[in-house]
Structures are given as C-alpha cells and as structure tokens.
Amino acid sequence: MGSRSTLHPRVVKAQVNQHLGDLMPAIEEEILDSFADVWPQCDDWTEVMVADRFVQLVGRVSSRMFGGTALSQHKEWVNATITFATDGFIGAQKIKKFPHFLRPIACKFIPEISKIKNHYKLAHDLLIPMLKERKRTGETPMDLLQWMVENAKGDETDEQFIADIQLKVSFAAIHTSAAAPTQLIYDLCAMPEIIAPLREELKEALEKHDGHLTKQAFNQMPKMDSFLKESQRFNPLLLITMERMVHEDYQMSDGFIIPAHTSIGVPTQAVSMDPKIYPDPDKYDAFRFAKLREIDPERAGKMQYASSNPQSMSFGFGRHACPGRFFASNEIKAIMAHVLTHYDFKFPEGQERPPSIGVETQFLPNHEGRVLMKKRTQGL
Question: Which of 138, 226, 276, 355 is deepest in the core (most CB within 10 A)?
C-alpha cells in the first residue's frame, strides 16, 4: 500500500489549500445531499448510531473533492474508499501476528488483504476511463484527480498510479475526518450548554455571507474553531503522533542509546494535558482557545484548530504535519454547521458520553454510542 511518491501531499499543500474557498460551494451541496441520503428522517426523536453515519457522509463529501459527483454519487466507489482503510487496518493487525518469513504466504489467506486488491481493481475500472475521457474532451474540473494529473511528474503520470493514489488519500482522509464530528456531537450531548453560543455565532456568520460558509464566514466563528480544538485535546485520534521505527542503534547527544527495532513517537496527548501549557488541563472549556485568541491576538494563529506547533501536534508538526488539515477543518465545521442548523439532539435516557476506545496508539470514537435526533423546524 505504501508509496514513496509525494504527488498527493504536493497537490494537497498547493492546489487544495489554495482553492479551499472555491471548493466549499460543492462541499456544502454534497453535505446537503448526503444528509438526505444517509441520515434517518428524524421527523420525531430518532435513535442514530452517529459514528457509522458520519463515516458514510464523510466518504461522500471527501469523494466530491476527489473527483466530483462522478465519485461522490457512485455507491461502490464510496464504499470502497471506506472499507479500503478498515481492510488495510485489520489486514495489518492479522499479518503482524506472523513472523516476517511467513508473511508472504500468510497474506494469501487473510481475507482483508485479498479485498484490497478488489478495491484497487474498482479504482482502475472507474478512474482510468474518467482520466481518458477528460483528456479526450479537455475538461479540467476543479478536483483532486485533475490537480494530480496536472502536477504529476515522471512515473507519477501513469493513469493506474493516479487511480491508486486516490484510494490512498481516502485512507488518510475519511475515517480521520469522520471521527471528529462523532466526538463533537457526543460532547454537545454531554454539555448542552455549549450549543446555544455555537448556534448564535453560526447564525451571525451566515447572515453576513448570504447563508454560505465562505472563508470569511469560517474566520468569524472562533467559538466553533475553539470547540473543535478543545474536543480534539480531550479525544485526539492519535495518542502518539509521528511514529517511527529505529532501524539501527541511535545514540542521543547525552549518550542515551535507542536500540534498533524500537518504535518512537511524540506523546501528543500528554502534551495536550500538560498544565505548564494549558492551565487547568482537566477542565473541558469549549471556548478556551477563543478566549486565548482574544487575550493574545498575536498568537491567534497558533490557537486555531488546524494549527501545528510544539504545543499542539495532533496534526503532526513541521514537514510531517498533515497537509489536508485545512480542508478537514472546513469539512468538519460545515458538517457541524448543518447538524446545529437542522437538528436537535440528546443522549437517550440514562446514557452517558460514550468513552473513546484505545487501540494501540489510536484513540477512536465509540461506534456503539447512540444519539437521539430530531429535525428542527425553525432552523437557527
């Protein structure tokens, strides 16, 4: 599954990040369509397993950015992008149980690894004809697929390679982005006093921008941004980031030796709970970072959800920071804006906030969590 190519991070850093504002109208449209298709009607209080629904929804929204409606409305493709990641993860867990010399044989008997080949075949069957048709017609849509074609170099120009990369980007984009709104709606149900200030801020921002989530509208929602960041501080997707394997003994400047075959990483969650960095770190303060931005405007950029710095490394840091974090931030905010606008929600009687689940160094949202949801008739 791995690749040394830097095509996708190059394109995300350049074209995607530069065109975030241009992409948002299509993303807003896809969110509306996706909620209509994958979400229950909720005309009355309806129990929703939100984690799985958000995965389906983010799979569609991300696919809209990957290749337009030809992908976002293709059910087999959306399903493949979702299961590609889960098959890869489960397959990796199974293959790790075998000694290295047996893995080439064992992989042939692991169903999830076999399924990965099917996902690649679907990508080839669907995307290669799309690429050929675009080349024939001269069509240049504003999406990730087209930007990859335009920026590919050398072997990267191979159509099969570009199709493969689309799946690999989905591996990084879908389940990670779907985890955030799941955690956020759990937090809102557990702390409903947060809801009204968020709705008020959202209403003011939308009124100033003709009801659309423009770049300027996002900038005028510091409470929403702060809420996302505080939720991430308590429930980071990864407890340890930037993990690496030491391949040979490495001596530190103080003489300490890290033995070969040692896994190392940055304890991101511990940093986020350090009282020297965040006063009263065990207190969930949804608007903590909005307040800090008001107190110290010069450091406002470092307090944003998508920021990457030594005090906030959930998205990585430096050259290893996630290049798609700015798109993910907008996508998650747009999804939460839709939820706040169109639904009331609460936990079923007697249910507390579902605890996150630790799997190795991951900290995943609980997929068994249930939320009661009901459509709002009055909007914001």
Answer: 226
Q: How far apart are CA 283 and CA 281, in angstroms?
A: 5
Burial letters 163-193, b for 16+ CB under 10 A, else e:
bbbbbbbbbbbbbbbbbbbbbbbbbbbeeee
pTM (global) more than 0.85: yes
The DSSP code sequence of 68-114 is -HHHHT-HHHHHHHHHHHHHHHHHHHHHTTS-GGGHHHHGGG-HHHH
* Residue whose token pair is 């690749």: 3
Q: For residue 363, give the 3-state DSSP assignment.
A: strand
Closest CA relative to residue 80, chosen from 9, 155, 167: 167
275-304 pLDDT, tens digit per residue, is 999 999 999 999 999 999 999 888 888 999
> 343-346 and 250-251: which strand pairing?
unpaired
Q: Which residues pair with 345 in a beta bridge?
A: 373
